[in-house]
Amino acid sequence: MAAPSHRLTAPFGLKLKRLDVRIGVVKLQRKKISHSYGVKVQASSSTMPFASPQSRFASKQEQFFPRCTPRNSGPQSHDSPPKRDTGIANEKDWGINLQNENVNESGTNEDGSTWYRKSGEDIGDNGYRCRWTRMGGQSHDGTTEWKEMWWEKSDWTGYKELGAEKSGKNAEGDSWLETWQEVLHQDEWSNLARIERSAQKQAKSGTENAGWYENWSEKYDAKGWTEKGAHKYGRLNEQSWWEKWGEQYDGRGSVLKWTDKWAETELGTKWGDKWEEKFFGGIGSRQGETWHASPSSERWSRTWGEEHFGNGKVHKFGKSTTGESWDMVVEEETFYEDEPHYGWADVVGDSSQLFSIQPQEQPRGVYPNIDFGSSVPVDDESPPTR
């Protein structure tokens, strides 16, 4: 199992009937932006909605996990299918509770299902220390299964990491995997403290050609620099969709935001929508495009743009492949956010367990070798290395 790189949430009902993006109509959604711009394009009336997962898995979960972990007969799983489009959860929502001693136990329940729980500590060079706990269980016939792993890492460079991984499957063949991680370290070039958080989530249907994947990432430093982004993918039988977005704040008032969404069917119909904005000191620009392509490769698109001069005047322009166009200067107040709604102070306040990780004691006269890419070899069942 591999930990996510940087960080990428409605439970995956695994009977997908509806998706966020509808064929032919693409909506722009701007997170906490007081002035948003979007362009809609209507495709042919024969198009069908492209669906998002529905949550019928609650009943499966209630049936499955109690069977695997009956009361007072082993570890109780905190696992559940990951939720789509909810971003990166805070550490308090993960319930990470590492054992203070080595544990290696397992058992069999009355219904034949089995469980196990293990914990330990790995020590390596440069003061590397990793404490970990893993547990899991499965039904008597192996058709249902759950696994969960937690870990914390540290070394003498000040590096600290908290992470978790959950996975499972049910009798219908539905499966899921979710990995979460947060890291505290000192930037090699600026010497600033940095916190990075990430999440990778995926689920797959056992009865349909359907599933989804998400990769979320957040980076912060002590001077207010912030970077956030996500990459999402989903499929429901013959229909697929993708979405990417990013935000960057330099901590001094400059901001860049962008979104790119597109979707397609196996018949060859494609459509998409994207936009970007850049601002600093009330001056900046916005631009975007909405497009649609038919199976015969006929393409329609509309592009638009705005130039904000910082004096109350905005130049607006655009055109489409059907011949429409506009070019004008209007009096308009400029709205944008030059600071993230969730920044350095917020993430520090939500990372108390990360900060509380205790590294090995460093002997006098021993100095760390600064190499954030190093790791200690571990077996396949141990937590992912850095």
Automatic annotation (TrEMBL):
Residues 80-94 have a biased composition (Basic and acidic residues). Residues 50-62, 70-79, 97-112 have a biased composition (Polar residues). It is found in: Plastid, Chloroplast stroma. Residues 50-118, 357-386 are annotated as: Disordered. One of its GO terms (biological process) is regulation of starch metabolic process. Keywords: Chloroplast, Plastid, Transit peptide. Transmembrane segments: none annotated. GO terms for molecular function: starch binding. The keyword Transit peptide applies. The keyword Chloroplast applies. GO terms for cellular component: chloroplast stroma; starch grain. PANTHER family: INACTIVE PURPLE ACID PHOSPHATASE-LIKE PROTEIN (PTHR34113), PROTEIN EARLY STARVATION 1, CHLOROPLASTIC (PTHR34113:SF3). Belongs to the ESV1 family. This is Inactive purple acid phosphatase-like protein.
